[in-house]
Amino acid sequence: MKDQELLWKYVSGECTAQEEELLKKRLKTDKTLQQEWQRVKATHESLKQLPLEKPSMRFAKNVMEAIQEQALATGNLINQSILKNLIGGLVLVSIAIYWIFSRSFVNINDAPLVRDTVHRFNELLTAIPAKGIFYLFSTIAAIMLLFVVDRLLSESIAGKASQRPRN
């Protein structure tokens, strides 16, 4: 590593303990390094005195538009892992509901552990109003429908954007 790079790491507090120790030893003996250290330190202090510039609102808008164009072009408006987890969860819940409603076809008196578990679960289900379950599944279905519509629209918009001539 060059001396100047090491000095900048040191002044910004990014040096490892080993690098810092080596630099301090060299600063005691090397006059050229001491002069360079004084320049780096003075520059660093001058930079700290400058006010921070804030980007213009137009810059922020340009960045957001570029991000949106890139997302539309690649079609990555929806996090695919979230969508997969949502669908997987819905499948698991559907299987659980199917099992709950199909338990009436099984003779649960043959297995006491299963019977007790089913009775406890049945008590839990009776505490939840049927409308609540309907609203829950309706909400999940609506969310999934919105994901599908969003995906279709983003593909349509991306197709139109790729057909547009670039300047």
Describe the overall structure.
- By secondary structure, the chain is an all-alpha fold.
- The chain has two domains: 3-49, no CATH class; 57-163.
- 79% of the residues lie in helices and 0% in strands.
- It has seven helices and no strands.
- It has helices at 3-11, 17-29, 31-49, 57-74, 80-102, 112-127, 130-163.
- The radius of gyration is 32 Å and the shape is elongated.
Spell out the key features of this protein.
167 residues, mainly alpha
How would you sum up this structure in a few lines?
The chain is about 80% helix and about 0% strand.
Main sheet: strands, sense, barrel: none
Shape: elongated
Gyration radius, in Å: 32 Å
- Which whole number gives the mean pLDDT? 77
Our measurement of the CA-to-CA distance between the termini, rounded to an integer number of angstroms, reads 44 Å
H-E order: HHHHHHH
Number of strands: 0
